[in-house]
């Protein structure tokens, strides 16, 4: 490998690394009821898989009245309900609730799967946790974790309610807290209504930390992952404010948003939870952290200002589902969704590189086109790779042709270097004359490679997050999910120290082998002995670097790169033969 080729490799590495950094950094890529015995509705066999069904399991055993919520001066009031688990089914959801805290403890997506089972969107560290808890006061206050009464309003609506009282100098002032969940059979959007009503026509004195209450989502969105590495598994935090999407970065485990937002979202690679508040001026907070049973939490809080009336109704809508544009855009047209929402622009949560998003869109359309011809996403990736190679042929051909010519000139270049070893100026002059005479551009092998980097980065972004690749099999028994790394043998739970690997993967090995072979083909036999150790090391260090960097990469991405390397090897070999014939002739 000559110095100019080495320079091309180094510059390419810098561009790739900076590209990944930009992608990951800017676009990419811490209430109400008391104790009772919990019993899952499913355990009693009282479940119903039909759309719009509601099932429950009562535990009629009464529990002692919950202790005073001392920090807020609020106590559960009136009768003490028993605790129960309640489930509700729609066409897209199977939701399970606990009356303790009126929490959503499970939300399974019927149309999306993980390990053969409906995908779970509520990732909990322990059985006591759940989403949509209410705390009296700000986000740092404990959820009112006491049992609520529950009733089904209709086949798609569940309501939880409970009396509380605020301790005042003149005695307790009662109020009723109601939390209502309303679904539409075919929507990934659902409604959460929070109602606080005072029976004596005076607004409840709920004002802790400057807030009446906080509605929270947490502790984590699904599906479960082993590690949040920031590239292949991550959580991101978006809002939509004044018609623009905004990405928030965590600072010391939290970030607060003081501006009024149209919606706020916690995003994973393929799924999202999006909270759409009403017109009330809520304060918004995102937090990250860790707790037993969870490697990290991702919580979202809406904090309401103090009440100014005896009856308060706040309506939130939450989207909990896939990051698929055709699904998200339904909530821009009131005729296409069951809640009549308009112009929510939930599609703004899509992870699309802002610098090369247009190129990703083109590649995605081509990929879908090839899939329509041969309905196998692995084959579609190979066909797309071939097309990209053909389109880039004029650029890559000049690059490899220039590299091949430089190899052929190695003996003459060596002769000039030896002859003018003690006269650098004369050596450079003779080299320039040689390049001119032989019509060789010493940078010809470098610049075309750099021009390919936008395509490289766009393809990385596409294969790393395109939803339709999720769960798509290429080669049964081996590459069963193009969105995930393949594995030929797993020795979990054991993990290789430091690396944390618990699987043997073949695709990274194939990738390294093809990359090394491609690099070695650019080396001239006549110059091999003159290569210094650093050049020889670079030939192997670059593939080794990528081996570790891409070991847990999605298999679809590695299929693309391996096929690219194989085509490149063939192209290099053909060009070398042509150059040799010209040299001999």
UniProtKB/TrEMBL annotation:
Membrane insertase YidC N-terminal domain sequence ranges: 86-366
GO MF annotation: an example: membrane insertase activity
GO cellular component: plasma membrane
CDD domains linked: 5TM_YidC_Alb3 (cd20070), EcYidC-like_peri (cd19961)
Disordered as annotated region, ranges: 37-65
Cell compartments where the protein resides: Cell inner membrane
Composition bias type Polar residues, residue spans: 41-65
Domain Membrane insertase YidC/Oxa/ALB C-terminal: residue ranges: 377-576
Predominant localisation class: membrane
Cross-referenced InterPro entries: Membr_insert_YidC (IPR019998), Membr_insert_YidC_N (IPR028053), YidC/ALB3/OXA1/COX18 (IPR001708), YidC/Oxa/ALB_C (IPR028055), YidC_ALB_C (IPR047196), YidC_periplasmic_sf (IPR038221)
Domain of life: Bacteria
Record keywords: Cell inner membrane, Cell membrane, Chaperone, Membrane, Protein transport, Transmembrane, Transmembrane helix, Transport
Matching Gene3D superfamilies: 2.70.98.90
Presence of keyword Lipid metabolism: no
The protein's assembly and partners: Interacts with the Sec translocase complex via SecD. Specifically interacts with transmembrane segments of nascent integral membrane proteins during membrane integration.
NCBIfam families attached to this UniProt entry: PRK01318.2-2, yidC_nterm, yidC_oxa1_cterm
Similarity annotation: Belongs to the OXA1/ALB3/YidC family. Type 1 subfamily.
Main function: Required for the insertion and/or proper folding and/or complex formation of integral membrane proteins into the membrane. Involved in integration of membrane proteins that insert both dependently and independently of the Sec translocase complex, as well as at least some lipoproteins. Aids folding of multispanning membrane proteins.
Name listed for the protein in its UniProt record: Membrane protein insertase YidC
């Amino acid at each position: 490998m000559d110095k100019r080729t080495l320079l091309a490799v180094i510059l390419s590495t810098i561009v790739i690394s900076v590209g990944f950094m930009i992608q990951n950094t800017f676009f990419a890529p811490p209430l109400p009821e008391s104790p009772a015995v919990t019993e899952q509705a499913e355990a009693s066999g009282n479940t119903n898989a039909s759309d719009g069904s509601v099932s429950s399991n009562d535990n009629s055993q009464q529990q002692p009245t919950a202790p005073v919520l001392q920090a807020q001066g609020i106590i559960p009031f009136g009768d003490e309900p028993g605790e129960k688990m309640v489930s509700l089914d729609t066409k897209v959801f199977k939701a399970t609730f606990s009356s303790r805290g009126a929490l959503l403890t499970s939300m399974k997506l019927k149309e999306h799967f993980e390990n053969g089972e409906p995908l779970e969107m509520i990732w909990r560290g322990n059985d006591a946790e759940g989403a949509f808890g209410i705390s009296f006061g700000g986000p740092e206050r404990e959820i009112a974790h006491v049992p609520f009464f529950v009733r089904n309003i209709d086949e798609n609506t569940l309501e939880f309610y409970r009396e509380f009282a605020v301790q005042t100098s003149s005695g307790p002032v009662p109020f009723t807290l109601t939390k209502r969940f309303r679904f539409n059979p075919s929507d990934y959007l659902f409604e959460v209504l929070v109602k606080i009503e005072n029976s004596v026509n005076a607004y409840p004195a709920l004002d802790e930390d400057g807030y009446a209450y906080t509605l929270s989502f947490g502790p984590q969105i699904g599906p479960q992952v082993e590690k949040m590495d920031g590239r292949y598994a991550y959580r991101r935090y978006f809002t939509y404010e004044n018609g623009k999407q905004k990405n928030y970065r965590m600072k010391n485990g939290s970030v607060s948003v003081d501006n009024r937002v149209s919606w706020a979202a916690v995003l994973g690679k393929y799924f999202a939870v999006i909270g759409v508040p009403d017109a009330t001026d809520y304060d918004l907070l995102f937090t990250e952290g860790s707790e037993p049973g969870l490697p990290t939490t991702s919580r979202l809080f809406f904090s309401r200002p103090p009440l100014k009336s005896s009856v308060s109704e706040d309506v939130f809508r939450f989207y909990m589902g896939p990051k698929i544009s055709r699904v998200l855009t339904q909530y821009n047209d009131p005729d296409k969704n069951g809640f009549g929402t308009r112009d929510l622009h939930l599609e703004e949560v899509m992870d699309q590189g802002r610098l090369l998003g247009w190129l990703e869109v083109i590649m995605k359309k081509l990929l879908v086109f090839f899939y329509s011809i041969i309905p196998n996403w692995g084959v579609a990736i190979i066909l797309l790779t071939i097309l990209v190679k053909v389109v880039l042929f004029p650029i890559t051909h000049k690059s490899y042709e220039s590299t091949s010519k430089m190899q052929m000139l190695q003996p003459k270049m060596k002769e000039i270097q030896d002859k003018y070893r003690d006269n650098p100026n004369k050596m450079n002059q003779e080299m320039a004359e040689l390049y001119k005479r032989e019509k060789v551009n010493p940078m010809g092998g470098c610049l075309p490679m750099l021009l390919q980097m936008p395509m490289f980065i766009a393809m990385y972004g596409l294969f790393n997050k395109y939803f339709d690749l999720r769960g798509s099999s290429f080669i049964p028994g081996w590459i069963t999910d193009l969105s995930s790394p393949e594995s030929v043998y797993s020795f979990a739970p054991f993990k290789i120290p430091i690396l944390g690997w618990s699987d043997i993967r073949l695709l990274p090995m194939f990738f390294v082998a093809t990359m090394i072979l491609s690099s070695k083909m650019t080396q001239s036999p006549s110059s091999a002995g003159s290569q210094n150790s650093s050049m020889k090391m670079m030939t192997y260090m670059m593939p080794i670097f990528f081996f570790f960097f891409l070991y847990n990469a999605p298999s679809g991405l590695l299929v693309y790169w391996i096929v690219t390397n194989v085509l490149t090897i063939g192209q290099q070999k053909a060009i070398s033969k042509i150059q040799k014939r010209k040299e001999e002739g």
